[in-house]
Amino acid sequence: MPCPKKEDREIRQISRCLSSVFLLAVLVAPGVATGCAVRGAYGVRVYDRDHGDCHEWDDHEDRTYRQYLGENHEDYRDYSKLPRNEQRDYWNWRHSHPDSDNR
Hints:
Elements: H1 6-33, E1 44-48, E2 53-57, H2 59-71, H3 84-95
Antiparallel strand pairs: 1-2
């Protein structure tokens, strides 16, 4: 079997390098895409898929969430443990009840 040409070796090396970069991008992408769901300066940041925005889940948001539960005659349940459709219901309500400080 003859030795591969220099060009063939270089192409394989570039191919391996690009494969590694692609693999790294695939592994990092989910963390970047959900970058909203990390601890922010004041609390946890929560991504609202339907409205395409992030919300800082701090004491103020927790009070607002409890207000929502009260208005809907529901017992307190941790927001992070709600099914997605119930989280969506909260954010729909939240967007129709903006704060005076435009949070």
